[in-house]
Automatic annotation (TrEMBL), chains A, B:
Note on how the cofactor is bound: Binds 1 divalent metal cation per subunit.
Family: Belongs to the SurE nucleotidase family.
Binding site for a divalent metal cation: 12-13, 43, 102
Location(s), subcellular: Cytoplasm
Keyword Transport in annotation: no
Catalytic reaction list: a ribonucleoside 5'-phosphate + H2O = a ribonucleoside + phosphate
Domain Survival protein SurE-like phosphatase/nucleotidase: 7-196
Entry-linked HAMAP family: SurE (MF_00060)
Record-given protein name: 5'-nucleotidase SurE
């Protein structure tokens, strides 16, 4: 690449989070960076978009110390990418879209609930190469120091090799406390589910309300060493290439047999 | 099936919409029905869940005339299914979860933005067989009369044959004005995208705000007669079996070759 690549950054924890600052710092070493990120936390927003309400977009000085152009948006992560592509950047096509670094895991089925990954998948839907980065540590002041090297290496490899069209990379890092990273595994999404429970309480007026409380249950049986959950549990970075074509091709013939 | 199947219904247009009433009426002919649906419209919510806020769940008399037990929830479609499974039904396992009938198309990539399909996919994530139904007519008072027969037939076939585990059926119907339905096609998700534009306006205080305005662009080239968009455009019901495993298996080896 003769000139510096243009890199668009978004996330779901909001523009003031530690994770996005880490990502901006690393990307600023690689290319020209533009940030369009939510003005408030958007975790668990899945692939939500704002269609029945208005959107605000304001210039932000959040990364002024790094000389990085930034905007904060009232919408979801997917809204941010749409506004970035069609309004902020309009005639400038980003060479890469990166999202994160999320405070918390987006392995396995969490990819479906993840605002971080929805920003990246939205980019892929728009024909842009994209990567979502997540750290398996939910704390507000999580330690990202051990992942900087990996974020940079993965980004450089993606720029050099090109991410295939329609594919989004879902990258998860073990937490800092897990010790030295052993390496990177290209994985499949593990079979798992969130086992929900609801914490039912009474408000001051005596009316019921609920908090969602989920616990993650790994449903793998047998050898799961090719899964993202295995990689993280064993100290590796997991990288799952994701498609947005949900068609279950292998099931089509079976359902054709129903005689509908 | 010796006793009446237990059918859980949700949607994204909200509990008062015409589409969910149509669905409740048809399902009440087939089984015992419980409704847990949003108390307000949730279109475009994707797979959002409520994790930083509380949820309300109230008994509703919306379908009292049909003798159907119903609840309205302050959350997203995915929240409704979670609350239904883990709180409302707790020890009763539904034989089928159906979502819709959506006022508007959920073909092609719209499946990712769809609240209707997120309720159905959430059910599949929880190990339950599920179908999302959508009518390609966005109007509030859309005519659903031509789809009742198809909704019933598809549901009966799904109950009789069993939907494979982890698969969700995404069913779309042509609008009433398209004339008589020609039949049903088991399809793949069409290659298409939403081409976004933003309508930028000034509020009374002179500050900018935006409305998202998208137009759907079919990106298919060559023969697309196996796609859902083709089916709808040609007067057929489209049925796409969907997976929630986003792994792009065919791309794994290529990325392994990057030497990360």
């Amino acid at each position: 690449m003769s000139k510096k690549p243009l890199i668009l950054i978004s996330n779901d924890d909001g523009i003031t989070s530690k994770g996005i600052r880490t990502l901006v710092e690393v990307m600023a070493e690689i290319g020209e960076v533009v940030v369009v990120a939510p003005d408030s936390p958007q975790s668990g927003m899945g692939h939500a978009i704002t269609i029945g309400n208005t959107l605000r977009l304001d210039r932000s000085n959040q990364f002024g110390d790094l000389g990085v152009e930034a905007y904060q948006c009232s919408g979801t992560p997917a809204d941010c990418v749409k506004l970035a592509k069609h309004h902020v950047l309009h005639d400038r096509r980003p060479d890469l879209v990166v999202s994160g670094i999320n405070h918390g895991s987006n392995t396995s089925v969490s990819v479906l609930y993840s605002g971080t990954m929805s920003a990246a998948i939205e980019a892929a839907l728009e024909g842009l190469p994209a990567i979502g980065f997540s750290l398996c540590d939910y704390s507000h002041d999580a330690d990202f120091s051990h992942v900087r090297h990996w974020v940079k290496e993965i980004t450089l490899k993606a720029l050099a090799n090109g991410i295939p069209e329609g594919i989004t990379l879902n990258v998860n890092f073990p937490p800092h406390k897990a010790g030295e990273v052993k390496g990177l595994k290209v994985c499949r999404q593990a079979r798992a589910r969130w086992q929900e429970e609801f914490d039912q309480r009474k408000d001051p007026a005596g009316r019921s309300y609920f908090w969602l409380v989920g616990s993650f249950v790994n449903m793998e049986t047998g050898d799961s060493s090719d899964s993202d959950e295995w990689a993280i549990a064993n100290g590796y970075v997991s990288l799952v290439p994701c498609t947005f074509d949900l068609t279950a091709y292998k099931t089509m013939q079976q359902i054709q047999g129903w005689g509908l």
